[in-house]
Write a structure and sequence with these properties.
Blueprint: H1 2-30, H2 32-54, H3 71-90, H4 92-113, H5 125-154
InterPro entries: YdcZ
Organism: Gracilibacillus orientalis
Keywords: Membrane, Transmembrane, Transmembrane helix
């Protein structure tokens, strides 16, 4: 089952990059906020159909959870909005690596303090190095994108 989950996650990453690229292009014509809305409206309809046929949970349980847990829906909207805004300006890979750095940084902090009922995993030197190497990777990717863009504009 672990291999299957890794493959699903890999497929999710592939689809996220494709979605970012397509949404970035769409936003040039339709607008950033409009593209984000279209994505969520379409996703809502798609998920409603899936829930109708395959749902096993209780959607009304949202009325029973602590209010702070509902903040996740706004965080998802902000994530997509920021992605749609960034991709046309810095490219898919720079946007993706920046997202990953943000995820790693917040994940390290959440794990270190055990926020949101997560495991407590102390911040150690290996995690610091992982963050540092990701930032170095972002630097080289961003510089490479900038150089390629300048070369393309020169021609």
């Amino acid at each position: 089952m672990s291999i299957l989950m890794i493959l699903f996650t890999l497929l999710g990453g592939i689809t996220l990059s494709a979605q970012s690229a397509i949404n970035g292009t769409l936003s040039r014509k339709a607008g950033t906020i409009e593209t984000t809305l279209l994505t969520f409206v379409t996703g809502t309809m798609f998920l409603a159909i899936i829930i109708l046929f395959f749902g096993q949970g209780d959607i009304f349980a949202i009325f029973e959870v602590p209010t702070w847990q509902l903040s996740a829906v706004f965080l998802g909207v902000l994530f997509l909005l920021f992605n749609v805004f960034a991709v046309p300006r810095i490219g898919v890979i720079a946007t993706s690596i920046t997202v990953i750095i943000g995820q790693l940084f917040s994940g390290v902090v959440i794990d270190h303090f055990g926020w949101f009922n997560s495991l407590v995993i102390p911040l150690d030197i290996k995690r610091w190095f992982a963050l540092l190497f990701m930032i170095i990777a972002l630097y080289f990717i961003y510089k490479g994108n900038k150089r390629s863009n300048e070369e393309a504009n020169a021609q």
